Known about the structure:
By secondary structure, this protein is of the alpha+beta class. It has helices at 30-36, 40-46, 58-68, 95-98, 123-138, 153-161, 188-194, and strands at 11-15, 18-24, 72-79, 82-91, 106-113, 143-149, 165-171, 180-187.
Amino acid sequence: MPVIRSHDVTLRGSAGDLNIVLRPLSDAHLPLLYRWNSDPEVLYWTEGGEDIVRSYDADTVNRIYGGVSQAAHCFLIEVDGVPVGECWLQRMNLSYVSAQYPSLDVRRIDMAIGEKEYWGKGIGTAFVGLLVEFAFAVEGVDVLHCFAEDYNVRSVRVWLKNGFRLAHSEDLPQPQKGTRQHHFVLTRSEWTETSARPIAVQDEPLSRGR
């Protein structure tokens, strides 16, 4: 039985001169997932909690992606044909967040670029834009509710550049890397409006994930 529940959706876009393709994630990509999830520098940015060196073993990776993929579209991120990371559009799995939107289809986006030479090239902003369009225009999602801890300025800017608004922030128990968790929200009606005009993004980070 496959570990990852796959699908048949492929999304295409670009970041400057770079061609981006989001392909269905499958068990064929597990070796890449094992490598990215055993790199402490990658995990520093994708995982919350204490600032410690961590590495996920194969069983843990199988459990994470096998579980998430049951209620998500999981994608491999390719840039000019090179696999560089993964992302997913997932039904909201936090009950306290879902409770804020009774009777609505609420989902979250999570992401990780595992190939570090592709960091800082605008790729995250581009593929999140593809996921946002897929969520609202194809899946009919009502609300996207996403997260970033304050230390992860790059993640914060990805949400802002894609038209998300900061709904609220909450203090995180200490000690850990972040001091506050930011909640970013975008509704289908907001996306319909903002997709027709440029998004203004502040240059200064907020008070500073998947």
